[in-house]
Amino acid sequence: MQGICPTGWHVPSDAEWTELLDYVVAKGYPNYNVLNGAGNALKSCRQVSSPLVGDCATSEHPRWNSNSTRYGTDEFGFSALPGGRRGTDGNYANLGVYGHWWSSTQFSTSIAWFRFLRNDNGHMYYNYLSKDLGFSVRCVKDN
Fold this sequence. Notes:
By secondary structure, the protein is an alpha+beta fold. It has helices spanning 14-26, 38-42, and strands at residues 9-10, 85-86, 92-93, 98-108, 111-118, 125-130, 140-141.
């Protein structure tokens, strides 16, 4: 998918998302719902009542909603933030709770794969949904 990212950059494919996740897992962060889970390692530490305190503990957006046992540690500088989503009705939901990021890989002409993180979980999930939904994107530099 080109156009949404600046020249020299692109929306990552599902395979590129998998490559990122495999790298994080290989560095010792399992893709499970545990404190040191891959999802937490990729999340920004900005959270309401973060146990990491300092700049991490904030109620100002952008930030994750509070969760006492699952919080971002940003081990890789990825700084994933929970932008929520825009529904097909045009309404926004889940700010502070979910971060959804599109991949460029289509499941069909109207459906694409995406990755998502939750404020209450250390796992990185993937699924496919209608491209009519509004999710965030991350741009990856071309080789």
